[in-house]
Amino acid sequence: MLIAVISVHRRERPGKIGDTFHRAGRAERVFRQDLQDKQDIDLSADRQENRVNPVHPVKRFALCVSAVNYYERRFTMKQWKRAFTLCLVIGLVTALVLPHQVYSQGWSDFTIRSLPDSSFALVEIDKNKNKVRHFPYRDMGGDIDIDQLIYCVGTFANETWVDPRHKDAARKHLEEHYHRFKFKQLKEEITRPVDINEASLKDLVRLPNIGPVMAVRIYQYRETHGPFQNVEEIKKVEGIGRTIFAGIRYYIRVR
After folding, report:
1. Pair type for strands 131-136 and 120-125
2. For residue range 35-88, what is the model confidence (pLDDT) as tens digits?
3. Which of 220, 244, 217 is CA-nearest to residue 232?
């Protein structure tokens, strides 16, 4: 009787029960193969009237539902693997094919290559018709990363250009954003000494007479030689002499 009820519902509602049995038919072969590998079960079926003779109708229905779920799980995993592989291929192609000329701190090379052109201060085209992108300072969402902006301004002199005439336009673009940030920062007072071992670039440019170039030098010295042992060691950074040290002496500390 259960088979008769199911058959009626299958004719009346082909979109639900009928679709389930249709998918179960395709899934059953895969499901049976895995069951036979794990258990000694003979699921050889009599294909006449689309049913299995040795199995009770209730168990038959449960087997169909299990087969559908198993098939869908396999299909979903297969789709996930395909999507992951596609993303990996796109990322590798982007990293290997897209030329760029950048200096950065805190951002990996892969992250920079994944950024859109709008994240860079200027984009040039070389003689081979390839893009050469200069100074990434915006993240994937289009927001300005202040530390990255300061790093770009501080390393501007190290950049190589396809056309030197573009240099001034890029500098003006970066400095305009930096000056806006600095104007807001000047309204804030230094309430406590800056730990030069943990300070970010935007914390370092808060110090008197420390601009982007000097802040980057402090950052690079720290990355190369490790943490400062005392505040006097900062005088080993190129460009920091007695005058600058005297101006920042009471605004810095080492923990």
Report:
1. antiparallel
2. 555 554 444 444 444 444 444 555 566 666 566 566 555 556 666 577 667 766
3. 244
